[in-house]
Amino acid sequence: MRPAIDLLRSVGPLPEGAVIDLGCGSGAVGPALQQLGRKLVGVDLSRAMLDQARRTGCYDELVEDDVSLWLPSEQAALIFSNAALQWVGDHANLLTLLAAKLAPGGTLAVQMPHQNNAPSHRFWLSLAEELFPGRIDHDAQPEVLLPAEYHRLLSPLGKVAIWETEYYQDLAPDGEGHPVRRFTEATFARPVLTVLNEDEQAQLITAYERVIGSAYPTGPDGRVLFPFRRLFLTLTV
């Protein structure tokens, strides 16, 4: 939630128009976006997530659709996406289309994890390739471009700001394994694990558990202070 609030705080004055929460999930950012005093539209592909977002009472409209395909029918004041677009391909095309849907003076604000080169994420892929060569679909991994690529793409369209922040997360011990393994297997590692059968998954998890402590040692109480990098970008047209 903290990265989402930091992203929202970077957004300046907005023109008339709706606020779009693109990839709204359970609506965790809904209360903060509602404070902008605009029509608030949430978009997500998961009906279960939209049901949770609806229960927040923050959204004027909720749309069940693929965030890589959906575009607002009218110009928006703010298109806000928190930790969602990394799962969507072809950022060059998508961000260009979204920018074209902003009202003059409107803002596109995006936050994505930028952790793929860290041991927490890199070990999943390197170990999977070592154990099961050719089985892993790298195209299914989260797509995040280099900051310079986003700048080249967006700077002709308006005023661009790009920055990264590393957040330190205090991960509690988990009786079933290393806290970083438990944290990443539910997000980044899902596309890796889903192509493997149960025995293969167990083999990969065992290998990951064997090495992850060297990069993220646990304290005496079993906790891990886990650095997690996030990429932010805003475009104001």
Automatic annotation (TrEMBL):
The keyword Metal-binding does not apply. It comes from the Bacteria. Keywords: Methyltransferase, Transferase. GO terms for molecular function: trans-aconitate 2-methyltransferase activity. Residues 21-109 form the Methyltransferase type domain. One of its GO terms (biological process) is methylation. InterPro entries: Methyltransf_11, SAM-dependent_MTases_sf, Trans_acon_MeTrfase_C. This is Trans-aconitate methyltransferase. It comes from Salipiger bermudensis (strain DSM 26914 / JCM 13377 / KCTC 12554 / HTCC2601) (Pelagibaca bermudensis).
